[in-house]
Design goal:
The protein is mainly alpha-helical. It has 16 helices and 2 strands. The chain starts with 9 loop residues before the first helix and ends in a 5-residue tail after the last helix.
Length: 411
């Protein structure tokens, strides 16, 4: 049994029973971060902050929301928005945070691609991050249905119907997800359960896995330099902080993160108070009506690129569904599609840099045309962009990185 001494303060009392000082060292004061990183490395903490805002605002909204097809719309648009004091503020915070979290996810994701932070021992960091992206997408989709507006209803009908394309069991899967033959009250309550309980618990678990996976290979740096963290940490602890290539997570690194979060919060609350409409579709302010199909059905902006991959293959629904399925998982394979062992910023890898720019342009085109009706030239642009997306990842990336490998550029 551990020898317990008389404690001088509450901190010492807790440390003797929970080893809080040791935990603080492992998680904060002796967790080492490369010195040569920039503000883009703060995106992970910004994401965590946004997720916290979603949970807090969601709890307040949960007090008044009614998960019933006859009450949901009014509970959001009348009770919360008009009757509850500051209900509008909590809804705006929740809606803007839901959109901004995907802005930051995409920045975080493409920063990792740019600096090659997904390979050479960092595969689990990338995979856990991509699992988070998928689960956040499910969380966003389930939440989009809850206001029970026109686009909520019809987007749910279209997306759940996609599962009907699964061979042999498709129809049964659709009925199981909806809890009915059509999108109905049972669908709303199922999505409500997913949104407020199951998926947040899963997200918290995967966040823990994501942070844990960072501990083994350590955080990458903007030069892709291999750092001996133990040796550099020893330099730092010996007082040679200037020559050490690492800093402590707390207080050195996290103080800079807090500064970035503070600047981001200024932008965030400006959007919440003055430009919240960018996160809310006007059509969704109409009550859901299963007898009146909107002229053009589309998901939220952060799903538009993958939706256009599905819709862009207009000549075959089966091929479009196959392309859509591949698009959902293709980024998981990125560490193995990139055949080179070089870990360096994209601007130092000319062929990879061209691929990177083309990929971003293609995703922007897919997002823009995913919002437009598939008419005239728009459907052919969508077709080309859909094929280009898969070609870039399945053909161009392996070719470019294999060429880089043959030139002897491996470290």
């Amino acid at each position: 049994m551990a020898h317990i001494k008389k404690s001088k303060n509450i901190t010492e009392w807790l440390d003797q029973r929970l080893a809080t000082n040791k935990l603080l060292e492992i998680m904060m004061t002796k967790y080492w971060i490369p010195k040569n990183i920039n503000w883009l490395w703060a995106m992970g903490v910004v994401l965590l902050t946004l997720f916290g805002l979603l949970i807090i605002s969601g709890i307040f909204l949960l007090m008044y929301y009614k998960p019933d097809v006859n009450l949901a719309y009014d509970s959001v648009n009348y009770t919360i928005m008009q009757e509850v004091a500051f209900g509008w503020l909590w809804r705006h915070i929740h809606a803007v945070a839901a959109s901004m979290i995907f802005v930051i996810i995409y920045i975080h994701m493409f920063v990792a691609i740019y600096y090659g932070s997904y390979k050479n021992g960092r595969e689990m960091i990338w995979i856990s991050g991509m699992i988070l992206f998928v689960v956040f997408s499910a969380e966003a989709f389930s939440g989009y249905m809850l206001p029970w507006g026109q686009m909520s209803y019809w987007a749910a009908a279209v997306i759940t119907n996609l599962f009907g394309g699964i061979p042999f069991i498709g129809a049964d899967v659709v009925e199981w997800i909806r809890g009915n033959y059509i999108v109905a009250d049972s669908t709303l309550t199922r999505f409500f359960m997913l949104h407020v309980f199951l998926l947040p618990v899963v997200i918290l678990s995967i966040i823990a896995l994501h942070f844990y996976s960072l501990r083994m290979p350590h955080v990458n740096n903007q030069d892709g330099e291999e750092i001996d963290f133990d040796a550099e940490a020893q330099k730092y602890m010996n007082g040679n902080k200037k020559d050490s290539k690492v800093i402590r997570f707390w207080p050195d690194f996290l103080c800079k993160d807090i500064f970035i979060i503070s600047l981001f919060m200024i932008l965030f609350f400006a959007l919440v108070c003055y430009h919240f409409d960018f996160a809310m579709d006007p059509i969704n302010f109409e009550r859901a009506n299963n007898l009146a199909t909107p002229a053009h059905i589309y998901p939220e902006w952060y799903f538009l690129w993958s939706y256009e991959v599905l819709r862009g293959i207009f000549f075959s629904a089966d091929v479009g569904l196959a392309f859509f399925g591949i698009a959902q998982v293709i980024f998981f394979a990125l560490p193995w599609l990139d055949r080179s062992n070089i870990v360096a910023p994209a601007h130092k890898r000319p062929g990879f840099f061209v691929f990177y720019i083309l990929l971003i342009i293609d995703l922007i085109v897919l997002t823009i045309y995913g919002k437009l009706p598939p008419e005239g030239s728009a459907k052919y642009v969508g077709l080309v962009a859909s094929f280009s997306f898969l070609a870039l990842l399945l053909i161009v990336l392996p070719f470019v990185t294999n060429t880089e490998k043959k030139k002897g550029g491996e470290q």
